[in-house]
Write a structure and sequence with these properties.
Layout: E1 8-12, H1 22-36, E2 40-45, E3 53-54, E4 57-61, H2 73-85, E5 90-93, H3 96-99, H4 102-108, E6 113-117, H5 126-138, E7 141-144, H6 147-157, E8 162-163, E9 188-193, H7 196-209, E10 214-219, H8 224-232, E11 236-240, H9 244-252, E12 256-260, H10 265-273, E13 278-281, H11 284-290, E14 295-297, H12 302-314, H13 322-332, H14 334-345, H15 347-350
Parallel strand pairs: 1-2, 1-5, 2-4, 5-6, 6-7, 7-8, 9-10, 9-12, 10-11, 12-13, 13-14
Antiparallel strand pairs: 3-4
């Protein structure tokens, strides 16, 4: 790719553009940042048939063999070939199936920069080994959104992906009022947990704090076990939500947040950005993002958890939230994360090689004997 001020960038492999999953959110954030810088962006979708443009980016629908399961091999093949014939400066791959067509892209558009972002490590088979073997040789960069995927990729395939975390952005719309869920702003604590067992342990410790604030558990679907736990505790309130806006609204208006779920990393960043005190389980992804700016607990250490909850719930004014807010904004805002991707998009130009003309040269004249 011969770099210019304006680039043509194509994103392929994402099933949805307006979904709630991490890939869709990443796609929208990168596309928005690129179009703001006047780059030309194409998004190949397997589901959005009627939409042609979104915030300056062109949206192109590509079919699948099975309409009930969009994003199959037909979609991957047509998207890859279309991007190659478009002669995009950068082709950003978002899945394993589209990565299988890297040789086709390299053949039809040899000057394009190929970036592959791996969000999950597929089970090791002959096909996945072949895809990885090709990608290592043809892609200019392979990125991963978190360290656990990076470790799995290294263990399974011996490939070290470049770590570029997913960022976060403050909601563009106003928060949904807390009274929608019969709550009062700043008078409840949000808990995010990935299992009923963790929720039960947190509820038990929270009860010992003897706070009057409600403990609000956010979930996509309320199960029978959650209902029984809610009935047995006067403080627990289980709230079903269907959108990221509902989740972010509940988190941003809470008095404090308890996190025991690695998937809630973005909500943790949002809470820190909104100056909401956070305590989190000592999970690798959460520790990696927050560093030393939030307090961590082990579920088995009940006394420590109770002390942390007592401090956060009853004395939130004693917690210095500024370091967490500063870290979130400085390191994990999408504008900052975009800089990492932008460097990769320009990779063939900015990388240093042994014959690069910018390498320092010595002009010392040899001494004549």
């Amino acid at each position: 790719m011969l770099w210019s001020a304006v680039m043509k960038i194509s994103f392929i492999g994402q099933i949805h553009i307006f979904g709630e999953d991490a890939i869709s959110r990443r796609l929208r954030a990168l596309s928005s940042e690129l179009t703001q810088r006047r780059h030309t962006v194409r998004l190949y979708s397997a589901t959005e048939r009627s939409i042609r443009q979104w915030q300056g980016a062109n949206v192109l629908y590509r079919p699948s063999f099975n309409p009930t399961q969009p994003g199959g091999w037909l979609y991957a093949a047509i998207s890859a070939i279309s991007s190659a014939f478009w002669k995009a400066d950068v082709i950003h791959l978002m899945g394993w199936k589209v990565a299988a067509f890297a040789p086709v892209i390299a053949l039809l558009s040899s000057e394009s920069t190929l970036i592959w972002t791996i969000s999950n490590v597929s089970r090791k088979t002959f096909v996945t080994r072949l895809i990885m073997w090709q990608a290592v040789r043809l892609c200019d960069a392979i990125t991963v959104p978190d360290r656990s995927v990076q470790w799995q990729l290294r263990r399974e395939y011996g490939v070290l992906g470049t770590y570029v975390p997913d960022g976060y952005s403050a909601p563009a719309l106003e928060d949904i009022p807390a009274k929608t869920w019969k709550l009062r702003k700043g008078q409840y604590t949000v808990v995010l947990a990935d299992s009923t067992a963790k929720l039960r342990a947190i509820v038990k410790s929270y009860t010992q704090v003897k706070s009057k604030k409600k403990l609000v558990f956010i979930t996509d679907k309320k199960t029978a076990a959650m209902t029984r736990l809610e009935r047995s505790s006067r403080l627990l309130k289980v709230v079903e939500v269907q959108s990221n806006r509902e989740r972010s609204s509940l988190v941003r208006q809470a008095a404090s947040v308890i996190i025991a779920d690695e998937r809630a990393a973005e909500l943790m960043l949002l809470a820190c950005d909104s100056e909401v005190p956070v305590v989190a389980e000592n999970l690798p992804r959460l520790q990696e993002i927050a560093g030393t700016t939030v307090s961590f607990f082990r579920l088995k250490d009940v006394e420590h958890l109770e002390d942390l909850l007592r401090e956060v719930v009853k004395q939130p004014y004693m917690i210095d939230i500024q370091p967490a807010q500063k870290r979130a904004r400085k390191h994990f805002g999408w504008a900052r994360i975009f800089e990492e991707y932008e460097t990769l998009y320009h990779y063939p130009v900015v990388r240093r090689v042994s014959v690069d003309s910018i390498q320092p040269k010595s002009f010392t004249q040899p001494v004549v004997q």
